[in-house]
Structures are given as structure tokens and as C-alpha cells.
Amino acid sequence: MSLPRSSYYHTPAKSDADEALAGRIEQIAEEYEKYGYRRMTAQLHREGIGVNHKKVSRIMRERGLKAKQTRRYVKTTDSNHPYPVFPNLIKGLQVTAINQVWVADITYIRILTAFVYLAVILDLCSRKAIGYAISRNIDTALSLEALRMAIQARNPPDGVIHHSDQGVQYAAHDYIDVLREHKFQISMSRKGNPYDNAAAESFMKTLKSEEVYLWEYRIFEDVLRRIPYFIDQVYNQKRLHSSLGYRPPNEFETILQGGIRIWTPPGKSILGHL
User: Fold this and answer.
1) How many CB atoms lie within 10 A of CB 10?
2) What is the pTM of this model?
3) Which of the 8 DSSP states describes residue 78?
4) What value does the mean pLDDT of the chain take?
5) Which of 96, 147, 220, 252 is the most exposed place for a label (fewest CB within 10 A)?
């Protein structure tokens, strides 16, 4: 073909566009260290960057941007108590609207010399954290503070399903009395079965891997400062959720309340049948 040997071995230099793309991927990965290539691709598409997921995966692999693995989760549920428990009302339920089901859970956060506890309530439809509380003590007062925050924020209608594990913090009379006062339907997971409250478990896993494990909390005040910021400004406002069609909870609720029909990945969406 009358070509010099050097042409055969020539490797084209990477384009400026590719370098810019790789740079943006690195910036996103620095902010969201648990983003895999699918969620990374969705974020780039939201920013108007048209790129194939295979290319994103390759760049992340070449740059060593694989999502960091999570640490092992430790249970905080004490279901050995004298209080009544309630049946699971959400198994097989199709969730189609906000304020249809709220899910609650508690986790621990390690600081330098002790543990701090976080109680959270999520709207199951939007995955939004609508109530939370932080305390040095894992007791009913902690779970009640998160519940009252959620009630104040949402002013829920009668009949909302409140789902939790069988822990004493949710089964105690003080907590059940508030639920009944506000006309909640009470639902609980089967004993020792985390899959019955998978959305809450998933939130705690995200919180630990994308916030707690990335910061060295030394004192209680560090937790009080960082956790509300992560929940309100990152998780609810910016973090993309695959179950919501790669949207943040706040945006998803805005779309849903506006009555706009939305697309979400097959098999992922809790609203896929609408």
C-alpha cells in the first residue's frame, strides 16, 4: 500500500474531548466514590454528555476508579422484648405514591471513643429521607425524634403504612401510641429478616459507604455536622438512584407530584407499572 512501516505502528493520540471526559469522570468519582459505571453514565447523560456506558467503564478501569467496597454491616436490632409485634403489610405491595409507605431503621456510627446512633425514616416511593435523629443512646426517644420530624415535614394523611423491624425502639408503647394518634397502619419485618426492610437497609449501606467510611469522625459534634449535610444536600438533593430512573429523591418527588409520566429501567422501578 506504499505506506511507511511507522504508519502501521502509529497509535493515535487521545483527543481533547476524551481527556475532558476522563477528567469529568474523575471529578464525579471523587465526589461519589461508590458510583459504578452505570450510575456514572447516568450522571454524565444528565449533564448533557452523550457517552456509551462501555466507554465510561473502560475509562474508569484505566484510571483505577472502581467503586470502593463497603464494610460489613452490623445489626442494631433488639427484638427480645415484651411488646406486641405487627404483621408485615408491605410484602408484595406495589408502591405507587408518596406517603403510602414509610420505612424506618436505626444504625450506629463509630466515633473515636464510643458509638453514635442514627434513626432514619424514608418514603418508600421516592427513597427520600424525611425524618432523622442522632443520639448517643439507642432508645425509643431516638426513634420518636425521627418520627416526629417526618410527621412535621409531611403532615401525613390517615392510613400511611409505617414499616420497621421488630426492635424495641419501634415496638415500645410510646412509639406505637404516636403512630396510632396519627392514624398509621403499623407493619413490621419478620424477626431476623433484613430483606423485609430492604430499602432502609440500602439507605444505611449508602450512608456508611459514601459518607461515614470516608470521614474520620472523632467526636459527637462531627456526626451532628456531617450526617445532616449528607442526607439533605447529597442523598436527597443530588445522589442518583437507579430505582428512580437515576434521579435524586427530591427531583423524583417533584416530577411525581406534577403528574408527569416518567420512564425508569425495567425491573428497577417501583412505579414501572404506571
Assistant:
1) 10
2) 0.69
3) -
4) 83
5) 96
